[in-house]
Structure formats: structure tokens, C-alpha cells
């Protein structure tokens, strides 16, 4: 009997209908979702030709995205209660899997979503803010679990399955208590610092109420409670010391917690001094409150169930199920939280996260605390730098260094402002008030006519916003004074008036200060680039001030320097090239030949909104300024601008601006300057002046030439580092210089190739182009496979590249293609002249022979002599061996002879299954190789730790010998 044919699998539509039924969606939302799926399935379910995910993964992501769009953009108006967490559970996806792919999926169907739901569909989805909230709560939950386990016995949630335990679920009770407090005061928990204060308050309440037998320590000699008073241990002060919290804010949070407990459980808070319990023995009870019957044997389970029932409510927390954050269900793992991601359809090892700039501090670095007493052996306590410890230490800097400053300009700054051509003190103080009100609005949503949402800044409560405004203004005044002092000592600057009267300069400085305050608190309400949108600036504007800000604020913590470095990379790699960037207003002056293309694509920035327009947006009144905007835009106080400057409103169209620049004789073509051009060589007034103004330093160049040259030099440095990393990954280091030279020529002579694109797209094409002309066995798939391991990698970089085109009616449109289509259609025609010269030189047999005949033990000379040597330094061309001098703090602890130098060695073994002693001998022989001396100086300042992490912690360098992280000494340090 013939076998019966297997029934055909259900169609995509049928599986989607079943999912909608499983989620209990109403007919209206199900119909909307089905109609949307029918429009987008061709785009979302197509398996990409390069670097793609499996068809099954693509379907799960498509279903989740379509359902979330239908529910969020239409279903919410109809009262649908299906949340994102339920959608992801039905699709068997984790939060990080979903958020990682959403931007790419949105780009593919943005036209469809715009036609169905309006231009603001992306803002209504709030995906970026939700992703930030997920990462924030994941970090907070990991902190809470770790802190709880330091104080109390392991809870049942941490036990192996099937093991019996008598420990009550106090850890769950504390987490639910935190969620209850959050539900009653959501405005206090939109940033990580506030969350940690809330969790530490919960820990304090647990210490008072949980029976002492469940503690992991005793009061006498405890390392957890070290603050003592005459009456005993000061719990609040001890917790503040351990977790870097503010004692004032912690007491305030405990007061809110007591009020929430009273309201929810109907209990009365009693003074702890009146409660004679074993828990409070040897504890200073002054100012502490306790609740009878909160966590005793009779009422604990009942109170826990009551809290859990509250957390099961679908209405109180929006899209997320916060109970899951104490477990790992559908929550980012430790290595993927806070910006991390995992590529669906391809494996990503845990050590890959060490290469991410946002994770370097929490996964790789440690903070040495003060040495312990000699009695304990003189060991050093090492504290792992997690996102929480990073946030709390930077918040401590903000609290102790910045908050203690005066809330107005210092006498020295007032003297500098009043010594200008006119007194600028009032202008500066009023501007700070207006711009910071735009960033941290304190008007209620009803007054502003807005609605509170994740992406709405006025979801912050007024005291929080006022505190952040005060911190940002004090930081602004401090850095402004430092910059003024430095500029006044510049021999090229005769008068500070042009700089101090420049509106764009001040707004950039205020925006940078506000961004650091937001980054310190790790808020999810205003995530970058929201600060730019609030102040009317562009990414290119902000890129001008970052380096100066870091240079002139000497106390800035390393974590905030890394944040600014990360922002600058984002600005350089893509944001400054987006449509509407002020970069294009400078390019049409510095490179008149690009004006027609800039105008054709409509890339020029809109004029910066005036201060009175910012006032009108916020609907508040500032003394000395009109409460409503004037009909005629007020001229920006840039005294040196001309009518065609992009900083001032002009009745001419953008076409006229471009045409006039084409008609004027072009200035001398300024080729790309070398990477040793520093912004500090030019006064700031040149950087922020109108593009058409002549450079005050001298010469025939315009200020646009200066800003573009500085910007391009930064692009080249960033590209050089990324090219070097990528060439090392694909194991074609000898091609690094060729790829870099092609990139450099494209930036100089085919600048339009970068418009509306990401610089990594050009880097990838340059590498593949060199591989083709040099006849290397390096397919695009392998390049992308290695690129995915880079920390800055995002799928849309190689899956969705902008290509401008005109339709039959001559209207400019846009489409997005993958990297191979972009390479064939756009890159090759533009870059062919720069690739052709390498055809003969790269394919000659003698070149290949020379490339392969290098001495195996000798380091290859760097193709970028102007770039600083990185630390750790690679000391072998054929083995992944790196050395780095020890930190001074560690060297002090090692009583080493002055004639010896200590180094840290991280990397793979030189041979498989070889003992560490033989490895060290082999490393020493290479270090002492006489054919070429390695530079003795290793510069730590010029290259960020993220770059070091990228170079050191690639897969091939970590897997083999993680145990080779040893200390070794070299008897001939002069040769290193």
C-alpha cells in the first residue's frame, strides 16, 4: 500500500491566525494585523542574500513586529490589552532578540507604516525607549539579586530544580515590594540611579524585618555594615557606603516605601526604637520604622500572594512583565543587556561581548579599592565594574563635585563675560534657563497639551527635572569658564566676544552638559539624540564640542569619557551624514562641487530655531523675552554671520544658496589633512563661526574649511582603527594600508558616497574591492561574518543601505538595498579609479611571496604611523600575543626591583598544549627579537578602552588560553 503523502504545512497566514487566537486578540485588532501582514510579508519574510537569519527566525520576528504595530498603533485605541511581553512569549522570543531586529524591519516597511499610521508611527511605537527600559530593569534586577545574596541566605529561586529548601522567598517579596513602589511612583524610576535607590531602600527594609537567622553575616565585625554610632550600626549609612547612594535620597525613598506599605497593607509604621526584636539588636534605630506583621511566619505568605496579585495586573506597568526580570525568562542575559545583542540565526559567544564599548567597563575592567589591613595579608579588594556600579560612581561624582558648585557663574566667569564688547552675563543665564527647560520640562502635560509616555520628557516629576537642570547648569558654567580661560591664552584669539556671543556654541555646551547628566542617571525617558531634538541642534554641531568638553573638564569620570567617546563615534559614523545635518551647510562652502548633489538630495539643515521659538514650544515665560514667538525670526547672536549663513533665516531657497556657491570662484581645493590635525590648533570661534566667514587665524580659507578638515581627520582616524581591526579578523593584515588608502581617496574625492550612509558600509566595500583586484580568497560572506563580531555592528548596516533614485515623474525617491547590491550598483562605478591601480601590484607573484616571507617572530610595522600604538601591544605577526604594562596601582603592590618591568600578558598560547613557562619563554624571545625594536612608549590616552577590547578579545585570541592571563617580568625592558 502506497504511503500517504504528508499533509502540507499550514501557510504563513494560517499560523498567524492561530497565534492571534492563542493571544486572545479581538476581531478588530486581528483583522488589522492580518491586513498589515499581507502588505509587509513579502519584505519581512524574504531571507536576505547576505548575513541573514533563518526563515523560521524571520517568521517569528515578522509576526511579533506586525502584532506589536497593530496592537500599539490601533489596538490600544480600541482597548486591546495584549502586551509586548505576551506577544514575545507567544512568538518564543526574548526581549533582546526582538529589539535588535526592529530597526531593520521598520526600515524595510517604513513607507507602508507611514501610509497606514502617519509619519509619527515610530514615535508611537516607543521601541527605543522600551529597549532602554528593559536593559535598565535587567541591570537593576541583577544588582538586587547580587546584593540580596550578599546579605541573606540564598532564596529558593536560586536553588537547583528539585532541591528542597526552607528559606522563605524573601527575595521575591523584596522585588515585588520594589515593583509596588514603582507602580506608585513611576516618575522616580525612569532612570537607573533612582531604581537603585529604591532597591537599596527595599534592602534596608528587609534587613529590619527578615529574621536574623537568615542573614549571611553577624552584626559584630560585619563587612557589610561598617558605619557605627554610639547606639549601634547605622544601617542607612552603611548601605549608602556600600552602594554609593545618597543618604538624603535613600531616606526619602524609604519614606515613600513606608507610605506605600501603609496604604497597600493597611499597616501602621512604628518607630523601630519601640520594637524590641532580635532583628534590631545592636542596630541604631534612630529614624528607622518597622511594621508588625509584615514578614512574620503567620502573615508572610499572605502578604507575598497579595503583592504577587498586584504584579499580575495587566494595567499597571504597560508592555512589560516585570516579574520575569528576577528570573531570566524573556530577559536579556548579562552579556547582552545594556546595549548588547545576539544575531539570530548565528551563534555569538559570551566572550564577544567583551569587545563592545558599552560593555568593556562592566565586563573587563575592575576597580581596585583601598588595600586591606596587613593582618589580612594586604590583598586588594577588586570590585567588578557593572552598569550599576558605573552609574552610582558617576552619580557620586555629580553629587560631590558638581552639585557643590554655585548655581550661577563664578566671579571669574562673570568677569570674562562682562569684559566682552557688551556685557553677556544676562544673555548666558537666560539662555541656560530656556534651553534646559526645553530639555527638562517642568510644566505639566496638561499645560503643554501633550500626553505622558515613555518618549515624553515631562513624565519626569518636577523635583527630579529641577535637580537635573541644576546639575546641568552648574556643569555648563564650570566647563564654559575652563574653555574661556584656555581660549584667552590662545595667541590666535584677541577677543572672546565672537565665541561667547555665538548661539550655537553655547547650545552645544549646554546640550553636552545635559547629556552627561542624563547619561549619569541612565534615564530611559530622554535617550540620545533627544537632547539634540530639544535644543534644535544637529549631530554635526555636537561633534564640534565633545573633544573640547573632555579636555577642559579634568574631573570627568572615565565612564562619562567613554560615553562621550561612544557618542562621538555614533556622530562620526552615521548621524552627521544624515539628512538635515549642518555638515552639509559647511560642505557646500568648503566643497562647492558637492553643492548640486546636496541640493538634489535635499540634505541641507533647517535654520536653528531661535530662543523665543524654544520658549513658545514649552509655553513658559522668561523675563526679558517674549512669551510668544515673534513673527520674524530673531537673528542669532552670531555677530560674524552673513545673510547666507545656515545659522540665520534667509528668504532665499536652498537652491539659490547652492547655485550662488557654484557661481562664486571655488576656494583652493583642500585635500584631506593628515590625522595629526587637532581641533586644539584652531580657536573655537573658527569651529563655530558661520561657514562662509573667513578663518580668523589667517589665510584665504573659510571657517567651513576648518570644520570640514577637522571632521574628516576624525573620520579617517576612526576608519583606520576599524579597517585595521577588520583586516586582522579576516587575516589579511597586509592589505590594511591599501584598504585605508582607498577609503581616504573616496572620502576626499567621492564624498557624496557617504551621504545618508554609514562609514562602515564604505569600509566593507573597500575591503571587498581590494580583495577582488588583488585576487584574494575573501568572499563578502566571510567579510560580513567577521564584521558581525565588531562591537558597532548592526544588521541594518549591511542589509539596508540607502540608494537614491528618481521615478518616471522625476520625483526623488529612496530605496534600501543590501551591501552586495550597493557594491555593484553604486560603489564600483564611484570607486573604480581608486581600485584599478592595485590590480597589477596586488596580483604579482613576487608581492605574494614577500608578504608570506616575513620573519614569523617579528611584529609587522604599523601602516598608520600617525596613529598611537595601542595597549595591549601585539608583539607577534603570526601569533596573537599582546603585552601591556601593569597599572601603577598594581605595580605599587608588587615589590619589584627597579631594574625589572612587570607586564600583563593576555592571549592565546604560542603552541597547543604547551606549558605556561614555555609560552613565556617563547614570548620573551619574540619581545627580544633584534630585527626591529618595538617602541618603548605605549600610549594609553589616545585610544579608548573599547578599541583595546576589540583588538584583544576577539574569538581566536580568547578561547585557547584564558589561563595565560599572567604576570611576567622582562630582564631587558629597554628592548621592549
TrEMBL record:
Regulator of biological processes that recruits a histone deacetylase to control gene transcription. May play a role in the entry into mitosis, negatively regulating the cell proliferation. Formation of stable complexes with geminiviridae replication-associated proteins may create a cellular environment which favors viral DNA replication. Residues 66-209 form the Retinoblastoma-associated protein N-terminal domain. Residues 386-587 form the Retinoblastoma-associated protein A-box domain. Its main location: nucleus. This is Retinoblastoma-related protein 1. Residues 641-651 have a biased composition (Basic and acidic residues). InterPro entries: Cyclin-like_sf, RB_A, RB_B, RB_fam, RB_N. It is found in: Nucleus.
